Amino acid sequence: MAKIIMQPSGKSVECAYGDTVLMALEKAGYALPNNCRAGACGECKVKVTTGQFDQGMVLDMALSQEERKQGYGLMCMAKPISEEITIEWGTEDAKPKLFPPREDALFVVIDKRQVAARVVELRLRPVGLPIRYWPGQYVTLGNARDNIPPRAYSISNAPRPDGELVLQVARQDGGLTSAWVHDSLQVGDNVKISGAYGTFIGDPSVDTPVLCLAAGTGLAPILALAEAALRRGYKRPVGLVFSARSKEDVYSQGMMAWWRTKHRNFDYKITLTREEAEGFQSGRIDAVLPKLFPDLSKHSIFAAGSPEFVETCVATVKKLGARPELIHTEGFFSQQVQLAGEDDPFKLPF
Asked: Where's the 2Fe-2S ferredoxin-type domain (predicted)?
């Protein structure tokens, strides 16, 4: 059994014989970025400052000889061979480091489809290097050539090896950018993306049941967070409550149903606020939540939607015992609203 020490926090995790550093960190709840898990993409590259490790077989394009000399390694393949190794990863409180945002990264629209009455979903593939991000973050999209201002949209998928981003864009009355996306942007068009931004990522080391609350296109970052947690084998219960006005505003239900079938620890509910329909809850989040989760004292909460929706969520979960330090909305919405202006994707009524 080896020990892996993270700096600058000084926190440590145990690494069982035969496990990679990445496996040990994930078992302890730390979400070190990774994609290929085979030494080919370089996403899990960190510097090892003390101790020895067996790097295994990795591609030079993912880890150059010069980087090896400087002490860097790919943690998806690295196995400790000394009693302790120290890596430079995380912040002083052991939370993930945010990736530096990039400006005007070139992407191609590879798919566009209507997923709800006022929402289209875009699939964007990078032409060059992908944008690195944490689930829950957002990017900006616009078109300077046609005087379409950049607006903020959350990434709705967890990071993928091909760098694909999925954005869900709601049509806003009078919104130039959302109208351009809905009416003019076509499959095959080139677009420029900037980001990723935001701190709506929580603390991956927390080992608690999780409850995600979303309204409108606030579902996008929630989907990314849930997908990332389930994909890395999160064992605690993960619940999701999606609030929509009517059935025609509901989307991604197929994906949520698939997650529920594949992952026994995942479940979801959809509540409608302006109509009643078979198979759906009925009522606003403050009325529905106490019936579904009467005790939230041990849960981590992630809430995304309009500022009014989030305010209602926070007040409601606190009444149900949620601890303030485990309620995640910090910083994300103020940045989104400031950037998004009239095209704020979270302005849908809830």
From this structure: 2-93
